[in-house]
Write a structure and sequence with these properties.
- By secondary structure, the protein is of the alpha/beta class.
- The protein has 3 domains: 39 residues, no CATH class; 129 residues, 3-Layer(aba) Sandwich (Rossmann fold), CATH 3.40.50; 234 residues, Dihydrodipicolinate Reductase, domain 2.
- 35% of the residues lie in helices and 17% in strands.
- The two termini are 45 Å apart.
- The relative contact order is 0.16.
- The structure holds nicotinamide-adenine-dinucleotide (NAD).
- The site of nicotinamide-adenine-dinucleotide has 26 residues, from strand 4 and helix 5.
């Protein structure tokens, strides 16, 4: 065994030397080069530990939840949850007492009982220890996501974590290992997969309207100029200052990965990344009255990913420059095309949907279908979960309703003992871009393997699926 290990190490070392583009010179000793691709360490699954693909837990009578982090984002989750049947809000936690008080006001306004209060830096631990909580909902800064989620799972809780769930590969693996060890749900709160256009397009793709899906795109392009100073303790600009790579990839990744059935019969094999120099980033630091000598995050980062099933993904990140908001969201298939920004629309090679398409003359494979055809298509292919939740989603809101659908689906799946729409492997895969892109960038855009966080279970499920009661 030891000999085999030595031989393998030598082989890998030889491969590293022979591979022109992949000296991986800035490694921290944790990755190697195999067939020209930088490969990061995949920790072995501990003996006796099982994967959590398609995890089903006992149905709950009520989802008893505790919230940690009540800054800009957290209170709206409290508001949404207080309007979802089958939930009981047991506890609220923030470092600041006034934020907890404010959230109590939200409960009162919505006719809910006051929740227990946890205030201070480490009060969240006591919240996680409460025996009457099923779900810990984490909306703190990124540094706290994984320590809190891991501790909560170790206390036997399910967890929902704001985006991105994890900041680096170690944290991704820590989430995966803890969810597997404890057999608990660990969902990242990626809301953009529930936007109406994305949901409808996913449904259309699953029904074959676009033929073979070949290429998908997604992004987070959002000028955060007006927000930087609002984050508690400046955590967000600090993180960008200290980290190169696509540090906020999940809004683009989520919808793109669902279209390609990632770890449900497909997987991401490797990525390459390129970024611009940081120009606006350091200026944002200077605007805060400090000098930034070595700002890490490029103003614009682009990443391309190759999948096992021969498709490509293109993901972008720019939170610095004056651009209209965009998550790109684009799909190219052999029979059709979908695009969301700046103009949402569909284009088809041939369309035989006679109840939708009144006038075939209007269709051409070179341009978007007319708006009335797009509207009719979106109505006909409305996703079943949208049909069920749309009215309430529009009423409760939260980014146009997608935040409500996300929370309502999480509650629905827990109440009915169903696998969640997003599992811990999604959380790890989509969050892992942060460090994987950094490694590529630091090695002249060399290809970097996207680890199989399921450790061999990526082909167990066939196709992405939203579970419904009775399944
Ligand atoms: N999905 C989305 O559309 C979306 C939108 C905005 C923010 N977010 C995510 O939500 C999270 C929070 O962002 P935000 O804008 O609210 O940040 P924020 O800085 O406004 O709020 C973070 C809160 O966490 C609290 N906190 C920090 N450490 C704590 C501790 N030890 N114990 C208890 N509370 C603690 C802070 O006091 C603060 O109130 C981030 O992960 C962010 O990426 C997601």
């Amino acid at each position: 065994m030891k000999n085999l290990k030595i031989q393998l190490t030598m082989l890998l070392a030889a491969a590293a030397v022979m591979t022109a583009c992949s000296s991986a010179s800035k490694t921290d000793g944790k990755y190697e080069v195999v067939d020209g691709i930088i490969r990061t360490e995949v920790p072995q699954r501990p003996e006796g530990q099982k994967d959590v693909v398609g995890l089903r837990l006992d149905p709950m009578d009520s989802v008893r939840v505790g919230f940690i982090g009540l800054g800009m984002r957290g209170p709206d989750a409290v508001r949404r949850f207080s309007q979802i049947d089958g939930t009981s809000i047991k506890a609220l936690c923030d470092k600041h007492a006034d934020r907890v008080e404010k959230a109590q006001g939200i409960l009162e306004k919505n006719g809910r009982q006051a929740a227990a209060e946890y205030v201070g830096d480490s009060a969240w631990m006591e919240l996680c220890q409460r025996p009457d909580i099923d779900l810990v909902y984490i909306a703190t800064d990124w540094n706290n996501h994984v320590p809190m989620a891991v501790y909560a799972m170790e206390q036997g809780k399910n967890v929902a974590i704001e985006v991105p769930a994890a900041q680096n590969l170690d944290e991704c693996w820590h989430l995966v290992n803890t969810a597997e060890k404890m057999q608990k749900h660990c969902m990242m709160l990626e809301n953009c997969v529930y936007d109406f256009f994305e949901l409808t397009t996913l449904n259309m793709a699953q029904q074959g309207l676009f033929g073979d899906v070949l290429h998908v795109e997604g992004a987070y392009i959002h000028n955060l100029e007006d927000f930087w100073n609002a984050y508690e303790g400046n955590w967000r600009l600090d993180f960008n200052e200290n980290h190169r790579g696509d540090v906020y990839a999940t809004h683009g990744m989520g919808p793109a990965a669902q279209l390609l059935d990632i770890h449900r019969g497909n997987k991401m094999n490797y990525l390459v990344s390129m970024d611009t120099k940081p120009v606006t980033g350091p200026k944002m630091v200077e605007r805060q009255g400090r000098k930034s000598e070595n700002f890490q995050n490029g103003d614009h980062t682009m990443t391309m990913i190759m999948t096992e099933n021969g498709q490509t993904m293109h993901i972008q990140h720019d939170v610095m420059n004056p651009r209209p908001y965009s998550r790109m969201y684009q799909l190219t298939g052999t029979e059709g095309f979908a695009n969301k920004y700046p103009k949402s629309g569909y284009c088809f090679h041939e369309m035989n949907d006679s109840d939708v398409v009144p006038d075939h003359q209007n269709l051409s494979a070179h341009s978007f279908v007319p708006d009335e055809v797009k509207e009719a298509l979106m109505e006909k292919y409305k996703h079943p979960i949208q049909i069920e939740l749309e009215e309430q989603a529009r009423k409760v809101g939260g980014h146009g309703g997608m935040d409500y659908i996300m929370d309502a689906r999480l509650v629905y799946c827990l109440l009915n003992g169903l696998p969640l729409d997003q599992d811990v492997y999604d959380a790890a895969e989509w969050s892992s871009l942060g460090e994987l892109t950094r490694i590529s960038l630091e090695n002249n855009s060399a290809p970097v393997e996207v680890p199989d966080f399921t450790r061999g279970a990526w082909n167990k499920l066939k196709g992405y699926h939203h579970y419904m009661k009775g399944e």
